[in-house]
Amino acid sequence: MTVRLPLFPLNSVLFPGLVLPLNVFEERYRAMMRDLLKTPEEEPRRFAVVAIRDGHEVAQSAPGMPDPTALPERGPAAGFGPDPVQAFHGVGCVADAATIRERADGSFEVLATGTTRVRLVSVDASGPFLTAELEELQEEPGDEAGALAEGVLRAFRQYQKRLAGARERSLSTGAELPDQPAVVSYLVAAAMMLDTPTKQRLLQAPDTASRLRDELKLLRTETSIIRSLPSLPSSDLTRGPTSLN
Q1: 20 to 30 A from 173, CA-CA: which of 8, 13, 120, 152?
Q2: How far is Cα 140 from Cα 207, in angstroms, rounded to an integer?
Q3: 114-150: per-residue pLDDT in tens?
Q4: Greater pLDDT, 11 or 72
Q5: 182 in helix, strand or coil?
Q6: What does the alpha-carbon distance between residue 50 and residue 14 come to, in Å, rounded to a whole number?
């Protein structure tokens, strides 16, 4: 079964259950938000987020390097080449916009939450913004997901401690970590300091247990690296940067 939703490509990976703040200023995404605001408040205002494989999150708006005479790209697929579906990773996440607030200058402040993983089937660039046909993906537990989640949580706490020490600041442990294996797997995937391809690999893992096994290896490796390189820079574990778009 497939569903068609507006498509919002980003240079980052969104996981189910994670919060996504957006600063929307490009016209194609403004049009998307205006369209979403037509949805009654009691109904979900959904769009799909996919990570960009090859392209630019923000389209060129003025001539620049390497060719100062090149004209800026326009349209919903600007920056993503002649076949947009090839520019994106094949698995993304549906986002439910809890807040869409229009500013005086016409830009939007959006706060959304990831809900369901989806597979990208096709992309339509014929309208004012990209839309996509998407296949919803079920989250299967896999073998020994519960035991793996316990191991990942222990390793994640060690990772947090090492990372906090590397940054020479105290670690706040007031927040309770979840115990549901799928939730653990998504939280840890989002919180670790990993590049986009690695986060994408975790998002599209075939089941929760596979994702947790991968995370356990990554946590042990990253913790060892931090131990060897105490000056390793990082950003806050549970807070990602707001997208420029």
Answers
A1: 13
A2: 5
A3: 999 999 999 999 999 999 999 999 999 999 999 999 9
A4: 11
A5: helix
A6: 8
Hunting for tokens 């389209």 — which residue is that?
A: 59
* Six token digits for residue 144: 């020994």
Burial class (CB in 10 A: 0-12, 13-18, 19+), 219: buried
Long-range contacts of residues 214-220, Cβ cutoff 8 Å, at least 24 apart: 215/152, 215/155, 215/156, 215/185, 215/188, 215/189, 216/148, 216/151, 216/152, 216/155, 218/192, 218/194, 219/152, 219/155, 219/156, 219/158, 219/159, 219/188, 219/192, 220/155
Q: Alpha helices of the chain — where are they, by DSSP H? A: 27-36, 84-87, 145-166, 181-191, 196-203, 208-228
* Structure-token match 């105290």, residue found: 170
Other C-beta atoms lying within 10 Å of the C-beta of residue 32: 25
More confident residue, 177 or 75: 75
d(CA 26, CA 23): 9
Distances (CA, A) of 237 to 24, 189, 226, 232: 24, 11, 14, 14
Q: What is the pLDDT of residues 40-57, one digit of tens each?
A: 989 999 999 999 997 554
Distance CA 145, CA 198 (A): 20
Let me know the angle formed at the C-alpha of 116 by 47 and 23, rounded to the nearest 5 degrees: 40
The single residue listed with the structure tokens 């442990």 is 173
Structure tokens at 26: 């490009």
